[in-house]
Design a protein that fits this description.
Blueprint lengths: L5 E6 L2 E6 L10 H16 L5 E6 L3 E3 L30 H10 L5 E5 L2 E3 L1 H4 L6 E4 L4 E3 L13 H9 L1 H10 L2 E3 H7 L4 E2 L5 H13 L4 H14 L5 H16 L2 H10 L28
Parallel strand pairs: 2-3, 3-5, 4-6, 5-7, 6-8, 7-10
Antiparallel strand pairs: 1-2, 8-9
Amino acid sequence: MPYETLEISQEENLQIIRLNRPEKMNAFTLTMANELLLALDAADEDDSVRAVIFTGNGRAFCAGMDLAPSGNVFGLDENIDANSPEMEKNRDTGGKVVLRMFRMKKPLIAAVNGASVGVGTTMQLPMDVRIASPFAKFGFVFSQRGISLESCASWFLPRLVGLPKALEWSFRGHVFGAEEALAGGLISEIVEADALLDRAKEIARGFTDSTSMMSVAINRQLLWRMMGAAHPMEAHKIDSRTMLHTSTRDGKEGVQSFLEKRDPDFKDMLAKGPPEGLDWDAEPPFE
């Protein structure tokens, strides 16, 4: 389908989503949010896509929310009282996108080519790898705009960089460069701009070559969701269920190919659905 704010391409089994408002430094809009939700749904349902890479067209990744339009730019219904039962349905737009990323079964990689502040930074938090060019900028600038953290950043950020760094960045609300992001653990590598996308593809292929699509999907969900578990017994119970599923399917081929010293030929496709008793879309940890 045609998109207004995204440019989507596929190279073999890698999908590349480019935020595509270069004249506005790819500033985030409600249209972009809705299109990202559609694109993520489509990628997750397509077994020809093994991993998704995000980057920006032009000189920015995403310069945050587009604050230029008049009216309510954040997508919340301001007529609903915060204490009303209706507030349950009044969700911040970036958070909807981030929660959809959280539920993804495919690895997500951010190739941050330039400025990415506000929601441009928080949308990266549920991605599995973040790399950046030397020109990248980051910022949890909400305190300097008089608003709170959004896009579930209060859950993701301290888990990624630790509470002290999350507090510092969210209190100060400053914009910082790739070196500070690397030192703080927000990104894993700084890559020269002309090699950034190639490096992201190399990382993605490391996740997809000779691996089981089902195993990667389950492991992604296990690791993200178990961060909210209260006791390792919760992980033990779901591990036992997923091990039963995988060991009787792709696991047999994995063992046989290892013994025969050949590349595996995994057959278990995500389109067939999740392991029995596991709901991809359930709230954490799992139903």
